[in-house]
Specification:
The protein is α/β, with parallel strands linked by helices. The chain has helices at about 20-30, 55, 65-75, 150, 175-185, 235-245, and strands spanning about 5-10, 35-40, 80-85, 90-100, 105-110, 130-135, 135-140, 160-165, 190-195, 195-200, 205, 210-215, 220-225, 225-235. The strands form three sheets. The protein has a six-stranded mixed β-sheet with strand order 5-4-3-2-1-14. Strand 4 and strand 5 (about 105-110) form a beta hairpin.
Length: about 260
């Protein structure tokens, strides 16, 4: 109950090529080893080709979901990452939390990236999603959500780990690195950010910097190359920080309107 083992897969994504991406991640998963959670980037099966959402989005029982279920069962680990989903005529950038038994939770991206007009293609989510695993509470988020501290606020220690999957561009990578640390410090929480690497179909460059941050804002792991980042998080470290620094007891009370 004290430890949580993660594998964060920082990878190049093949633009609009679902078959090639799933094949690539299948090969990478063979190298992961025994972990509790495997984290994949945002829109891991297609890349961030939102303008083609009507072409690439799937139903809740589509090919990507089938692949996630099979891989989670095969490796006896939760697998999480986002993909494009069509649901009742709307399109969503949806993060899936797939368990080994085939059950899953989902989170629809709340903040749609205005600079790329993501709001023109996807419908925004309305609800937070906090899941539990081995006694850990994990708050699921996608990319641009990182810029919104109110949305990410850890109210009364409702979560232990704040997780982001992303396609964060190289030209604003300093924002990514600093905001991940800020979210950890202000929320007294571990933070994990999984980013992609490489140039996408819009010629936007991505340089990774997938990171694991301690509750004190210390960078525990960070990478700029295509690789699998392993780390074991310890609950006793988190509890020690919260016992010493009880800042959350002085936090302002508020409600988020949807």
């Amino acid at each position: 109950m004290n430890e949580l083992k993660l594998a964060v897969i920082q990878s190049f994504l093949h633009w609009g090529d679902k078959e090639k991406n799933l094949k690539s991640f299948s090969a990478k998963l063979e190298q992961v080893g025994e972990v509790d959670i495997i984290v994949l980037p945002e829109t891991f099966s297609t890349g961030f080709c939102m303008k083609q959402a009507a072409q690439y989005a799937e139903s809740s029982d589509g090919k990507t979901m089938e692949w996630l279920a099979n891989q989670a069962q095969k490796y006896d680990a939760v697998i999480t990452g986002s993909h494009m989903v069509e649901d009742n005529g709307n399109y969503y950038n949806r993060l899936i939390w797939m368990r080994p038994d085939g059950t899953f939770e989902s989170y629809d991206k709340r903040h749609l990236f205005r600079l790329a007009y993501e709001q023109n293609y996807f419908t925004a989510g309305e609800n937070k999603k906090i899941v539990t695993l081995k006694g850990w509470k994990i708050n699921l988020n996608i990319c641009y959500d990182l810029r919104f501290p109110v949305w990410c606020r850890n109210i009364d220690n409702e979560y232990d780990l704040l997780l982001f999957v992303a396609n964060w561009p190289k030209k604003r990578i300093d924002h990514w690195k600093q905001l991940l640390k800020a979210r950890a410090i202000e929320n007294l929480s571990y933070v994990v950010g999984c980013n992609r690497i490489g140039i996408d179909g819009t010629q936007t460059d991505h340089c990774g910097n997938s990171s694991i941050i301690s509750p004190m804002g210390i960078v525990l792991k960070q990478s700029i190359k295509e690789e699998i980042i392993h780390i074991t998080l310890e609950k006793k470290i988190l509890e020690s920080v919260r016992n010493r620094l009880q800042f959350y007891k002085d936090a302002d009370q508020f409600e988020i309107k949807t």
